[in-house]
Amino acid sequence: MNTGWSLYVIILVVINIVGCAWLLWVTSRRRGNDGKNTAETTGHVWDGDLTEYNKPLPRWWINLFWITIVFSIGYLAWYPGFGNFAGTSGWTSAKEHDAEKAEADARLEEAYGRFAGMAIDEVAKHPEAVAFGARLFANHCAQCHGSDARGAKGFPNLTDNDWLWGGSPDQILTTLLQGRQAAMPPLAAAIGGDVGVTEVTAYVQSLSGIKADPALAEAGKARFAGVCAACHGVDGKGNPMLGAPNLTDDVWLYGSDFATISEGINKGRQGMMPAHEPIIGDTRVRLVGAYVWSLTHGKDAAAQATP
Fold it and tell me: Pathway listed for it (predicted)?
């Protein structure tokens, strides 16, 4: 807060406190010499004997207001609230937040600590750990993958067995810890412009059994082998080391229609999975990984955990 705003707050607080004190003092003066309430009337009389009086507040009520004013002055001396004055206690909302966070982290670490360093398929054998992971997933992952983990356009479905970067426990853990960066470059110029994009699109559709023009698909096969096969393989089955998807199945991250595929070839794709180790730490990442693993291996994990 700069000096100008600080002075504004100070003046406003002083005016309010002094104004309240003045109002109470004026009200207190409206008493007789004996200290009792004077019986002044407003001049309004009904039915001959029903008179409206204008009496001051009772003494006990006024004293409560004086106590409130004294309390407010003490509060402003102890806590910040008087402009830039920090208060004699040194309290700040940031310090309180940090203290509460440290206390909460200690409790969570006690609950999560026994799963530290475990492989996610081992963690998945513990129902409590999977429940922890589900809540962490809802907080940190559902924004992209959905609350049911079925994903959306551009965000993978985690409930099937199709994995861009590999579906082993170590590969999933690496994805969560370090993140992933897709690198599908614009390829229109490399494969022959609009004609090449059309032909390769037709060939890619034919790989997964989608009906496509045979002549265009055949022409696109040679272009695919010369450029696209470097990542997706000659057979189009992809490469988990590069995050290159399998083009021969029926799983499509962005869509399988002609326009969507040709757009991806023409403009490229730059999907990004952020690294979560810096965000939630190694142990919590393993709990999330255990939950993700359980979505496709839940029955297997439960069977192994059963004596």
Answer: Energy metabolism; oxidative phosphorylation
Q: Could you say which architecture CATH assigns to the domain 100-181+273-305? A: Orthogonal Bundle (1.10)
Annotation: binding site for heme c: 141, 144-145, 184, 228, 231-232, 273
Spatial neighbors of 279 by CB under 8 A, at least 6 apart, are 140
Cα 73 → chain centroid: 40
Q: Does residue 46 sit in helix, strand or coil?
A: strand
Q: Could you read off the pLDDT of 119-162 as tens digits, one per residue?
A: 999 999 999 999 999 999 999 999 999 999 999 999 999 999 89
- The whole-model pTM stands at 0.69
DSSP conformation class of 114: G
In the chain, domain spans: 3-78, 100-181+273-305, 193-270
- For the domain with range 193-270, which CATH number is right: 2.40.50.140, 1.20.140.10, 1.10.760.10, 3.40.30.10? 1.10.760.10
CB 88 within 8 A of CB 268: no
Interval 202-258: pLDDT, tens: 999 999 999 999 999 999 999 999 999 999 999 999 999 999 999 999 999 999 999
Q: Which helix (DSSP H) or strand (DSSP E) does residue 175 occupy?
A: helix 169-178
Residue 201 identity (one-letter amino acid): T
169-178 and 282-305 are packed helices; what angle lies between their axes, rounded to 10 degrees? 160
